[in-house]
Amino acid sequence: MARPKEFNPDDALDKAMHVFWHKGYEATSMEDLLSAMDINRGSLYATFGDKRELFLKAMDRYCTGGGIGTGISILKQPGPALPLIRQFIERMLEFGLSDPLRRGCLITNTVMELAPHQKDIARKVAGRLQMMEEAFFNLLTRAKQEGELAKDKDPRALARVLVTMMQGTIVMIKAGTSADVVKQTAETALSILD
Q1: Fold type of domain 67-193
Q2: How far apart are CA 77 and CA 55, in angstroms?
Q3: How many angstroms separate the CA atoms of 58 and 122, rounded?
Q4: Where in the chain are all domains bearing CATH 1.10.10.60?
Q5: Is domain 9-62 classified as CATH 1.10.760.10?
Q6: Could you tell me where in the chain the CATH 1.10.357.10 domains are found?
Q7: I need a surface site. Which of 45, 75, 78, 156 has the fewest CB within 10 A?
Q8: Alpha-carbon distance 76 to 72, whole Å?
Q9: Which pLDDT tens digits describe the chain residue by residue (194 residues)?
Q10: First CA to last CA across the chain, in angstroms?
């Protein structure tokens, strides 16, 4: 009979997510993970698989919980659409700028680190970026239908620009760019919605 788990797998996964987010995939050792998760090697492998499987699960957690998922929930709220986009962008920038570690975004970090040479991860990351694009597209389509967005504006093209702007500003934040410059850049990009 198997022994019951003596740790909370969700808590352990959150801890692993934060390690990967801070250090990246390659720089994170198994010892880093075991120490942060406060579990032994056997429990890690039995519950999460190897380092790569754990990383993929941590990315999923980031996208559905503490990272992108939280932000996308803003984009699904009722009410005027364009203020929700601004609120989303402002919260994401505030989050990134207030992080003393300047971790950026786990998805953006993964694009830069792994996507160029790991095609399965590139596909997974592309899917997450597509999820973000779809959330913007749906909200911009609603804005156009409700007369908030000019009739000549293309919701799909605007959604792509917003995803690109978000990824670019995250890189700027990670690179140590000043908050004023990051906010000014985002404000300029948001002017395409006017």
Answers
A1: Tetracycline Repressor; domain 2 (1.10.357)
A2: 30
A3: 15
A4: 9-62
A5: no
A6: 67-193
A7: 78
A8: 7
A9: 455 557 899 999 999 999 999 999 999 999 999 999 999 999 999 999 999 999 999 998 888 775 566 677 888 888 899 999 999 999 889 988 999 988 888 988 998 899 888 898 899 889 888 988 999 999 999 999 999 999 999 999 999 999 999 999 999 999 999 999 999 999 999 999 98
A10: 64
The residue type found at 159 is A
